[in-house]
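**User:** Hello, beginner here. Are you able to go through the protein record under this note? It all follows right here:
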Amino acid sequence: MIRASLAAAFCLLAGLAAARPAMTAEDATMRAAPSRHARVVQRIPAHAQIDVSDCGEDWCAASWRDIDGFVRVEAIGPNEAPLYRPRRYYGGPVFGLGFYHHW
């Protein structure tokens, strides 16, 4: 049992190195293991941005607010909030470049 837990923790930590941003589609419960009977780690509100690394058929290894765990696949939706929003430059032309520069 301890070896299985250590193996799962190692895989989770190795997988989070390649995490990608996602957003929760609904309120989600993060658990310590990919099981409905596992200990609850934290509750995540809808539309929260989380980092997802590995997804299986039912569960995804995820991280939110520097806490790692597993979230049901159904609770994760597409990331609708961009991480970076470009800022526009509303001034005049940038001299020497010959065009309006938008940031």
Q: What stands out?
A: The first strand starts at residue 20 and ends at 24. The beta strands are 20-24, 28-31, 40-44, 49-55, 59-64, 67-72, 76-77.
